[in-house]
């Protein structure tokens, strides 16, 4: 297995405008850190075993299975009673579950929003209840936060732009700076992180004047949807010879579509890592996130914050880049 870890800092020049805006809009104070001492935390935080509410989109995606277990394990280690709510990919269900956390008087909430925009309503509700919010993985829309006069304490996730850029750079390395590249994207245009991945991928292709990025189809982070929309895209655009899939489930469906259409050897796939899927002559490279690590970091910083310590407004973790072998458990897109 060949992999390299790409480090990054919050000041990395590759950050997109959206990510910079999110960092400013999401922080709880006017500086670069937030502290529980800046404003009173809920009295429930001082109980023997404070409750940490965790809101996740689903547990169908292996990404969230790994994240859920890590929240439970890390929470128990740090003395929290972790309550996990699964929204089944529904914005309204997630908001209802957030309101339930408010009624329960939880100490803090770790929010992995179903969608970037609607997630701001959950943040606003928690702000009104004076319950600190830590967002993870899905960036809450800075514009929607501003509209609702809402803010979070901290965001934890991967450097999404760097992940897409790494895939584009690997593509150029594999095919060269003069090769004809007609790429299609199997993405999720409704989310800030996936759009950042797409932007990074496109940026990396600029050294090749013969590289073009054509259609983007919405996989809805669902392997079955991805299979269908990738099939349609390839049938409607027979010149496509590269696909970039910006989520793990998107990669899974795209790989199936390439095989079913007899495009093996004709279309190369680069993407965010699919669970339990080996790299091969078609599936050339992938970028892996580590959701269990993100959950652990969130729990540790919730503990610091409610204890009165300062925490950074944003923590961006490096991705692992695979060009062969099979990513390990929990190394997914």
Low-confidence stretches: 1-32
The CATH architecture of the largest domain can be named as 3-Layer(aba) Sandwich
Number of helices: 10
Remind me, CATH topology of the largest domain? Answer: Rossmann fold
Let me know the average pLDDT: 90
Globally, the shape reads elongated
Distance between the termini: 17 Å
What proportion of the residues form beta strands (DSSP E)?
15-25%
Number of domains: 2
Helix content: 25-40%
Structural class by SSE content: alpha/beta
The name of the CATH superfamily of the largest domain reads Response regulator
Radius of gyration, Cα only, in angstroms? 20 Å
Sheet with the most strands: spatial strand order = 1-15-12-11-10-8-9
User: What is the CATH C level class of the largest domain, in words?
Assistant: Alpha Beta
β-strand number? 15
| Major beta-sheet overview | 7 strands, mixed
**Secondary-structure element pattern, one letter each:** EHEEHEHEHEHEHEHEHEHEEHEEE
